[in-house]
Amino acid sequence: MQTTMNSRSSNKILAKAAIILFSFWVVALILLTRPLLNNQQNEVSNDVLQRLSKAVTELENLKVRNQELQWILTNFSHEAQSGKIKEDVVERLRSTLEDNIRMPITFGNTEKKSTGPSKEYEVKRRAIYRGVQEIWYFVQQELEKLKKKGHDLSAPELTNLIQEILNSGKEHEIVLLNDLQELSSMEGHDTWRTTESRALSDLVQRRLHYVQNPADCSKARKLVCNLNKSCGYGCQIHHAAYCFIMAYATKRTLILNSKKWRYHRGGWEKVFLPLSDTCTDPSGLDRSNWPGTNETQVIELPIVDMLSPRPPFLPLAIPRDLSQRMIRLHGDPQVWWIGQFMKYLLRYQPDTQKMLDQAKEKMKFKSPIVGVHVRRTDKVGTEAAFHSIDEYMLFVADFFNKLEMKEKVGVRRVYLASDDPSVLPEAKKKYPDYEFLGDVSIAKGAAVATRYSDSSLRGILVDIHMLAHTDYLVCTFSSQVCRLAYEIMQTLHPDASSKFKSLDDIYYYGGQGPHQQTAIYSHKARGAGEISMEVGDVLGIAGNHWDGYSKGINERTKQSGLYPSFKAVDKYNIIDFPVYSEVAVAE
């Protein structure tokens, strides 16, 4: 009898806890949407809700201020056109207001070219989107904990109730994210984002072409990189990109020595276009190992693991002269920057491009489609944990559920890549409502024993190309292939920083410098494993646990542990790179 009473008492406590969490979620939804309707202020104790509510309110206030100023300036414009006010007075007024509110202003029938949204506006917009995701990570994790307790106490009614709350909460999150995306499109800035993305990418590509094509190769300063690192394809491509970044930062022409490349004995140029049309000769009057001097004509570069001294411009550094444009345009400018080097490096030879086009046509690859990369073999147990196909498919389902809130989806299509031949058949059997594209023979060729064959190279080229061209990527960032596909994806969209879900790591680049964040809200440790921080503290981030918390070290207090993810933002490592004044900036 006593055991039954204790069980009932525990069930009541869990039920109350579930109701409290459900109430928490409802309040969160009201607070998230209310700023779009009115300016009513609410006292909310939860830090996450305060931040999101404040952020949405600020976003709405910016729009209202812009509309009011547009109305005032339109009246000024009409008076200027009638001769009552000089036109230059209106222009000076507009310029002054833009400088103060940091937002572009247009009025009347002006022909002035749109300058797009401010950097602060774009950063805030993306922060709200991530904030909605973070609050759901937290609520979902807490409810899952309660559900597990209910299961342990043999309380099926409670477990079912919590599952219903989880399902309902997920729908709310999907609607909010969709609304935020639609709001972004309704603001009329999509054209600017596309134009700016092309212009900024074009500038970087022209700079890379300039440094790679000196007028006189015999006099050019060179950086020699040997493509002989003992690792897989993704790792070797990242090695080549590291060399390319070093060449750009030192204003030297990169000479990629790829003779007897493990993936193709004919060398790099058998698969990709040459890095230079004018300079491929590694010889020079004098040569030295890194770092050499500024006058040394030829410098040989070691692998990043052996690099000493380490310069400040290694990833995740971004160039100062382009940094503000990059931060304004992209949710992760560090990845965008690396993607630009991949864009130049991985320009296919016509035969390679033809092979990829034929593979895409043969498998009837088309949107909407989610890319899934399941890395097994040598990674599992050493660099990464095992993840079942079910874990990946949860996020595939989320993508299509979100899309179906906006439009009809005829086929739930997935491109599945893996180095384990058993994964594709398993997925097809377990998920008959999905159409899976992929090739088991590619998985067989990706095995450690056969990965350096011609067929294996074709397979990995196909997998990365297809993954990068999907609409959303589900993978593990512990895999070089996954990160490479994500980097290439950034070159195909104005901003694809949110088009992924990693089951383990946050994005990183092998051999990178410190990845730091800055605390934007204070936090007092609430339990074991958490750390305290003050506004402005620099945090070395080790990872996001995808449960509302990140792990890192407070560099002021030297404490290591968990902190709420939403209370910190990336601290970009902005470095002085060459500005390449020889390459004109397009108007």
UniProtKB/TrEMBL annotation:
Residue ranges of every copy of the GT23 domain listed in the record: 219-503
Any one biological process term the GO annotation gives: protein N-linked glycosylation
Membrane topology: Single-pass type II membrane protein
Localization in the cell: Golgi apparatus, Golgi stack membrane
CDD domains: Fut8_like, SH3_Fut8
GO molecular function annotations of the record: glycoprotein 6-alpha-L-fucosyltransferase activity
Catalytic activity: N(4)-{beta-D-GlcNAc-(1->2)-alpha-D-Man-(1->3)-[beta-D-GlcNAc-(1->2)-alpha-D-Man-(1->6)]-beta-D-Man-(1->4)-beta-D-GlcNAc-(1->4)-beta-D-GlcNAc}-L-asparaginyl-[protein] + GDP-beta-L-fucose = an N(4)-{beta-D-GlcNAc-(1->2)-alpha-D-Man-(1->3)-[beta-D-GlcNAc-(1->2)-alpha-D-Man-(1->6)]-beta-D-Man-(1->4)-beta-D-GlcNAc-(1->4)-[alpha-L-Fuc-(1->6)]-beta-D-GlcNAc}-L-asparaginyl-[protein] + GDP + H(+)
All residue ranges annotated as the SH3 domain in the record: 512-573
Record's GO cellular component terms: Golgi cisterna membrane
Pathway(s): Protein modification; protein glycosylation
Keywords of this entry: Disulfide bond, Glycosyltransferase, Golgi apparatus, Membrane, SH3 domain, Signal-anchor, Transferase, Transmembrane, Transmembrane helix
The keyword Transmembrane helix appears for this protein: yes
Positions of transmembrane segments: 13-32
Disulfide bonds, paired cysteine numbers: C217-C279, C225-C243, C231-C235, C475-C482
Record motif SH3-binding, residues: 309-315
E.C. numbers: 2.4.1.68
Pfam families: FUT8_N_cat, SH3_9
Region of interest: Important for donor substrate binding: 375-376
Function: Catalyzes the addition of fucose in alpha 1-6 linkage to the first GlcNAc residue, next to the peptide chains in N-glycans.
PANTHER family documented for this protein: ALPHA- 1,6 -FUCOSYLTRANSFERASE (PTHR13132), ALPHA-(1,6)-FUCOSYLTRANSFERASE (PTHR13132:SF29)
Family: Belongs to the glycosyltransferase 23 family.
Protein name in the entry: Alpha-(1,6)-fucosyltransferase
Organism field: Daphnia barbata
